[in-house]
Amino acid sequence: MLSKTKYARSDDVRMAYQITGDGPFDVVWAPGTISHLDLDWEIPQRALFFERFSKFCRLIRFDKRGTGLSDRPVKMATLGSALMTFAQ
Predict the structure, then answer these.
(1) At residue 82, does pLDDT exceed 70?
(2) Is residue 13 a contact partner of residue 70, using CB atoms and an 8 Å limit?
(3) Which residue range is the domain that position 29 belongs to?
(4) For residue 17, what pLDDT is reported?
(5) What's the CA gap between 11 and 23, in Å, rounded?
(6) What residues have CB less than 8 Å from 64, skipping those under 6 apart?
(7) What's the burial of 36, exposed, middle or buried (CB within 10 Å: 0-12/13-18/19+)?
(8) 3-26 per-position pLDDT tens digit
(9) Average pLDDT, stretch 46-68?
């Protein structure tokens, strides 16, 4: 169940994210050091986990700046600007 990739803008960088499920509350899945939203679906164990997890919530996953489907940063982001990307 590959989710559609959407993008949020933070400064000059587009941050890739996917929303899976339509449960009553949101859960934000913070990736480790590296991630790739689309490739995660090609790993059967991960795909099954995300599908099951999203049955009771809206699972929001994202690729950090410079990884996966997100843009490479032109300059280093501050913690505040990175957090504001998903607070909006």
Answers:
(1) no
(2) yes
(3) 5-87
(4) 96
(5) 30
(6) 15, 31, 34, 35, 70
(7) middle
(8) 899 999 887 889 999 999 999 999
(9) 93
The structure tokens listed for 42 are 């090609």
* The pair of three-digit structure tokens given for residue 74, joined into one six-digit string: 């032109």
d(CA 50, CA 7): 20
Contacts of 52 (CB under 8 A, 6+ apart): none
Interatomic CA distance for residues 40 and 65, integer angstroms: 17
CA pair distance 4, 17, nearest whole angstrom: 9
Instruction: With H, G, I as helix, E, B as strand and everything else as coil, classify residue 5.
Output: strand
The total number of structural domains in the chain stands at 1
Contacts of 22-28 with C-beta under 8 Å, sequence gap 24+, read 22/58, 23/54, 23/55, 23/56, 23/57, 23/58, 24/57, 25/57, 25/58, 26/57, 26/58, 26/60, 27/53, 27/57, 27/58, 27/59, 27/60, 28/60, 28/61, 28/62, 28/86
